[in-house]
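INFO  loader      accepted 1 record
INFO  loader      residues=70
INFO  predictor   begin
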Amino acid sequence: MNSRYDDVADRLSSLAEEIADLAIDSIRQALRSGATGRPAAERTLTQARRAVEKAAHLLRGIEEPEGDEG
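INFO  predictor   done
INFO  writer      dumping tokens
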């Protein structure tokens, strides 16, 4: 049975995937523009993705108190 924490963690994991897609898009755009280095936006997006993944991981480690379901 999923707890409320797990539900939020699942939504955060989905957001992390979306952020990863944005990071890849920023790399593709930079390559199309002829950039030779890693775009700043990609660095920031990767940092944000890692933070969201960490939050999801932390939430999955919380035990929901008895009687707090629903």
